[in-house]
TrEMBL record:
Domain Alpha glucuronidase N-terminal: 70-108
Keyword RNA-binding attached: no
GO cellular component terms attached to this protein's record: extracellular region
Family: Belongs to the glycosyl hydrolase 67 family.
Protein name as catalogued: Xylan alpha-1,2-glucuronidase
Reactions the enzyme catalyzes: Hydrolysis of (1->2)-alpha-D-(4-O-methyl)glucuronosyl links in the main chain of hardwood xylans
UniProt signal peptide: 1-18
Superkingdom of origin: Bacteria
Alphabetized GO MF terms: alpha-glucuronidase activity; xylan alpha-1,2-glucuronosidase activity
Length: 719
């Protein structure tokens, strides 16, 4: 027994040593240099060779080729093939571009790290005979971009993992090694672009001082294929340039933008372009001067055209009007379809409100046939528990991408609308509002890394399933250190332990990762409820919130509309008629309370408390069951996580365990607050078989969460 214990300790010792999460999913181990050949040299190809020399453990030599064959040209400069030679003695990674070779290298290392290269079906023999490889891939989107909401003072709007990664006060003189680590992590999952600053942009980002700082980052990112973009303040000509106006049709304003753009490209020849938030939430824009969004975007597009730059123009616009807020982006942008330059792409949030735990897809995706549009997803968990709650967001994004707009009949999914396959737009893109900060593990919650990873993988290949992505990430993150050579002397008991670990990771994938977003919806806002968060932050529940003088569309009651007659926002043809913005037959399905999917019922309808649901329960009872189910699901996540203690390092285990405890308490807080508040209107008991509330409504209504720099305290509960 003592010998077995020693062997087990040796085998699992590497997996249980202290880890701080800084390696992300790239937990490779160095060893004997592999035989790698590449006939060309360049900064990008040198990185590709170096990565394989350090980390490839497959035994076979690997040849890297930049080639212009017909097949490779069809895959583009970022696509690649990975093939085993006919005699089985070599692997070749080939692309028509250097960037494609690097992506192919990371794909091969991903397969190795996730133990997907073995011919054996047993996870216990990861380094047995290699599979014959015949892989051909190209990205679904031309631009796969992260949007940083980082401010120049180092804070991050909706950031929950510390301060900004960019140390503007130190640049350009001091360069953090994390800048290159950031570029490497993005390249490993196919992300090829980044917006460095907040969409609520300071004009200072375009000053000479800051452009010199941006240049340093662009130079570091370039070998990894990561292009830099900037968010701009539309009033920069006046605020920074001293002009009396920023009217996009003013000749002096146009001249100012031309000069500034020339300056940018003289410093950063591969600069990508501008991201613009205009005439939304107080940000300046062309409408301030009586111009349209198209006129504002086109002015910038014309300036950038010479340099092959693009404009990403956000469709997140709303103003205090009597109109349903969910309709406003459609109403402003649909009439402008076909009026934008071909180097403008309209960036649309996945839902019509604002990154809620569940929304229907934005109808704008099905409204613009002549204009390229791109999805904007939120990786950072602004409305899903910050970095305290575990919420894997690939199922949410798949739900959006797989939704059918019916704009060209059945099969007109958002993925096809945005990837160029439905309308053949050459400019395609997908954006994710990043969750990255300067925390040692990058993302705050260890499992929040999975969302950065998932965004990159879906941006590369949107047909990947959430389950596939979850399996990849879990294995790369929690298996004994990736690439560790097998030990022939490992005994049968150790092999059994390895199999048990794989089984546990499979359970974590199917019952925790894949169910986590739905659990958050259940304990926060089930059945289509939305935006009932507390004033001043988006962490806790406050369906009763009422701030004197505040805009109605910033109040939870604007959205839930609970009264004695029922609950929900009537967006049917009898209400705001938002359902009319969707194509048939979806608009008719959503418009009828009896055919509207129950998960969106209260988004589109004001429903009586006694309305009978498909389960046979009343709406009130169904709401109670959903909230209770969310609480129970999170408690089950704690049970699912507990067995991981014997497989991984104690640091990461305890961090996740601690956050799951917070999440479980917060789930009860949400359940009690919402049910006790809405019960005042339903005037019905919480079903007696369900768990009783542990808080008093009066106490919760008086409680104010202490938020500093948008960070939740460790225990956001009622005392």
């Amino acid at each position: 027994m003592r010998i077995i214990s020693i062997l087990l300790a040796l085998f699992f010792g590497l997996s249980s040593h202290a880890e701080d999460g800084s390696a992300l999913w790239l937990r490779y181990v160095t060893g004997t240099k592999a035989e790698i050949s590449c006939r060309k040299q360049s900064p990008t190809l040198n990185i590709a060779v170096s990565e394989l020399q350090k980390y490839w453990k497959g035994g076979l030599p690997v040849d890297l080729e930049v080639n212009a064959t017909k097949e490779l040209r069809a895959l583009g400069n970022e696509g690649y093939t990975i093939r085993t030679s006919a005699d089985g003695k070599q692997i070749t990674i080939a692309s028509s571009g250097e960037q494609g070779v690097l992506y192919g290298v990371y794909h091969l290392l991903r397969l190795q790290a996730a133990e997907q290269l073995s011919e054996s079906n047993s996870d216990s023999t990861p380094n047995s005979k290699l599979k014959v490889l015949n892989i051909s891939e190209k990205p679904d989107y031309r631009i796969r971009i992260l949007n940083h909401w980082d401010n120049l003072d180092g804070t991050i709007e909706r950031g929950y993992a510390g301060h900004s990664l960019w140390k503007w006060e130190e640049l350009p003189a001091v360069v953090s090694p994390r800048y290159e680590a950031y570029a490497r992590a993005n390249a490993s999952i196919g992300i090829n672009a980044t917006v460095l600053n907040n969409v609520n942009a300071s004009p200072k980002i375009l000053s000479d001082e800051y452009l010199q700082k941006v240049k340093v980052l662009a130079d570091i990112f370039r070998p990894y294929g990561l292009k830099v973009y900037l968010s701009i303040n539309f009033s920069s000509p006046a605020a920074l340039g001293g002009l009396p106006t920023s009217d996009p049709l003013n000749k002096e304003v146009i001249a100012w933008w031309k000069k500034k753009t020339k300056e940018i490209y003289s410093l950063i020849p591969d600069f990508g372009g501008f991201l613009v938030k205009a005439n939304s939430e107080g940000q300046p824009g062309p409408c301030d001067y009586g111009r349209t969004h198209a006129e504002g975007a086109n002015m910038l597009a014309d300036v950038l055209k010479t340099y092959r730059g693009i404009v990403m123009w956000r469709a997140f616009v709303y103003s205090p009007t009597d109109s349903d807020r969910a309709k406003q982006a459609y109403l402003e942008f649909e009439p402008l379809d076909g009026k934008f330059r071909d180097n403008v792409i309209v960036q649309i949030k996945n839902g019509p409100i604002d990154f809620q735990p569940r929304e229907p897809f934005s109808p704008l995706f099905g409204a613009m046939k002549k204009t390229p549009v791109m999805p904007e997803f939120q990786i950072t968990q602004e409305y899903l528990g910050f970095s305290n709650h575990l919420a894997f967001l690939a199922p949410m994004w798949k739900e959006c991408l797989d939704s059918d707009t019916y704009v060209q009949g059945a099969g007109s999914t958002i993925a096809r609308v945005t990837d160029g396959s439905l309308f053949a737009h050459p400019l395609t893109a997908i954006a994710g509002v990043t969750n990255i900060g300067d925390d040692i593990n990058w993302c705050g919650h260890p499992f929040a890394q999975a969302n950065w990873y998932a965004f990159g993988r879906l941006a590369w290949k949107h047909s990947l399933s959430s389950e596939e992505i979850g399996e990849e990430w879990l294995k790369q993150t929690f298996l004994p250190i990736a690439g560790q050579p097998s030990h022939n002397s490992v005994n049968e008991t150790s092999q059994k332990e390895r199999q048990q670990l794989h089984s546990q990771l499979s359970l974590l994938n199917s019952q925790l990762l894949q169910e986590s977003r739905e659990a958050v919806v259940d304990y926060m806002m089930p059945l289509g409820l939305h935006h009932i968060f507390a004033w001043g932050h988006h962490y806790g529940p406050e369906p009763w919130c009422d701030i004197p003088g505040a805009r109605p569309d910033w109040m939870p009651s604007y959205y839930h509309r609970a009264d004695d007659g029922g609950i929900g926002f009537d967006r049917s043809s009898k209400g705001s008629n938002a359902t009319a913005q969707y194509h048939s037959p979806l608009c008719e399905q959503l418009d009828d309370v009896n055919t509207c999917p129950e998960k969106l019922l209260l988004w589109f309808h004001h429903v009586p408390w006694n309305h009978q649901m498909k389960s046979g329960r009343t709406l009130w009872a169904e709401l109670c069951y959903a909230y209770d189910r969310g609480v129970q699901e999170i408690r089950n996540f704690q049970k699912l996580w507990a067995p991981m203690e014997k497989y991984i390092d104690p640091e990461r285990f305890r961090d996740v365990q601690h956050r799951l405890k917070i999440q479980a308490r917060d789930a009860v807080w949400w359940k009690d607050a919402c049910l006790l508040y809405f019960q005042q209107f339903s005037k019905q008991p919480i079903p007696y078989e369900l768990e009783r509330p542990v808080h008093e409504l009066k106490d919760m209504m008086e409680y104010k969460l202490n938020i500093t720099n948008f960070e939740c305290p460790p225990y956001g509960i009622i005392k």
